[in-house]
Amino acid sequence: GTRACTSRCHWVRRHPNTHVRRRKTPRGRTRRRSEAMPRYHQYQVVGRHLPTEKEPEPKIYRMKLFATDHVRAKSKFWYFLKKLARVKKANGQVLACNEIFEKKPTLVKNYGIWVRYQSRTGYHNAYKEYRDTTLNGAVDQLYDEMASRHRVRAPCVQIIKTGIVPAKLCKRANTKQFHDLNIKFPLAQKIVRPSSKTYKTTFKAVRPNVAVH
Q1: 111, 132 Cβ separation under 8 angstroms
Q2: How far is 119 from 144, CA to CA, in rounded Å?
Q3: I want to staple 111 with a disulfide (CB 3.0 to 4.6 A). Which of 123, 138, 195, 207 is the partner?
Q4: CA angle at 141 for the pair 158 and 132, rounded to the nearest 5°
Q5: Pairing of strands 123-132, 60-67
Q6: Residue 186 to residues 176, 182, 183, 189, 190, Cα–Cα distance (Å)
Q7: Backbone phi, then psi, for 145, in 5-degree steps?
Q8: Does the pTM exceed 0.85?
């Protein structure tokens, strides 16, 4: 027989003696890759210890963090503050939690990120360089690379410092190859487009030939 399942799923019969459980997403939607990939934002969290009679004005701490939402940003804040200042969520308070946005989100920049991560063998320090228009996009690239190239889970990555690196101070060859003023990108596949909008049609009578030699 089949076991009872409390989660939202249904059973698919593959073989007369076996059942395969397939999990369904909310409202019957299919789970897409874009929904599973997190998008990191930069937050500024300000907090302190709760005022007491012995210390009516406790010291205020400010921290910049990268998280998918403000709830996880506050959770990271208490995680680090407990280690640094022995202040935990039970006896502390958050004064402000603001998201930091990019000043020039349309300009491509070289970002340097100093990280500390935990691998299967121990803790390591690393320096990474990425080209992106925003710091959030560079952090997204960082988490993707740490997961694919180093097999590091997202909770095991701690960002120490970030900064915009000038072109002359970049170290990685993957970043420096884009600093050429005469850089060119070949068109792997050319698409024949109509000369004007009057010739543009949604449905074609003849299958179009997209190969241009």
Answers
A1: yes
A2: 15
A3: 138
A4: 115
A5: unpaired
A6: 19, 13, 10, 9, 10
A7: -70, -40
A8: no
Long-range interactions of 79-82: CB distance < 8 A, separation 24+: 81/47
- The helix (H) or strand (E) run that includes residue 72 is helix 70-85
Angstrom distance (rounded) from CA 24 to CA 89: 35
Query: 5 falls in which pLDDT band (50, 70, 90)?
Result: very low
189 band by pLDDT with thresholds 50, 70 and 90: confident
Residue 78 and residue 93: Cα distance in Å, rounded?
10
How does DSSP classify residue 190? -
Sign of CA pseudo-dihedral 167, 168, 172, 178: positive
- Say yes or no to pLDDT of 89 above 90: yes
Residue owning tokens 């929904």 = 35
> Which parts of the chain are beta strand (E)?
9-15, 18-23, 41-49, 60-67, 92-100, 109-118, 123-132, 157-164
Sheet containing 157-164: which strands, arranged edge to edge? 123-132, 109-118, 157-164
Question: With 0-12 CB in 10 A as exposed, 13-18 as middle and 19+ as buried, what is 103?
Answer: exposed
